[in-house]
Amino acid sequence: MALTVLLGVICLAGTIAITALPTWKVTAFIGANLIVMEELQEGLWMNCIRHANFRMQCKAYDSVLILPGDLQAGRGLMCLSIILIIFAIILMSCGLKQSSLCQDNMKKKNSILAAGGSLYLVSFLTTLIPVCWASHSIITDFYNPTLGDSQKRELGSALYIGWATSVLLLITGVILLTRCSKRKTPEEQYYAEEERNFQDKNSISFTKTPSSIHKNQVYV
């Protein structure tokens, strides 16, 4: 279970990074000009201009309404993902065998662990949807002949982090749901061991014995 706790922390850090980074959309360098003095970056909360001397200037959006639909939806869904992952980590910690919550009631702990795994799967969707939506918007605009080169954007690093984080969220949720389905209560373990011992005692091993007729045969 230590692996799932580590994955949960990594997923939370990745989701926060995706939400905060301004590199959802970056300037697409199209044309013959090889020397570019600045790069425009657009995120969920601000847009930034990175100059060639590595100096960056950022400005928060004045209004949510000026954002395109994919970034507006991305704000809400990514904030929801962070909240879901925090609750998932809390439930996962409460569902561990070492947890004092519910004492030794393994059924309740399994239910809590399953709830945590389900939240991870929901956060997988709420993270993947805005990332894929923004990617689809960027690719569609890139091949739109009616848009000028200055209006076209490329996929930023935040989107790649989003895909990687989504995969980790899916893996963590599946591990937790698989784990809780295999854990048994002390009574179930006791009856399983008793049944196994009963089957071992009553198992009959058949050994091949020579026939009595064969013993009495006289070979000439």
TrEMBL record:
InterPro entries in alphabetical order: Claudin, Claudin_CS, PMP22/EMP/MP20/Claudin
Membrane-related topology note: Multi-pass membrane protein
Biological processes per GO annotation: bicellular tight junction assembly; cell adhesion
Sorted UniProt keywords: Cell junction, Cell membrane, Membrane, Tight junction, Transmembrane, Transmembrane helix
Locations listed in the record: Cell junction, Tight junction; Cell membrane
Family the UniProt entry places it in: Belongs to the claudin family.
Protein name, UniProt field: Claudin
Organism: Oryzias latipes (Japanese rice fish)
Source organism phylogeny: Eukaryota, Metazoa, Chordata, Craniata, Vertebrata
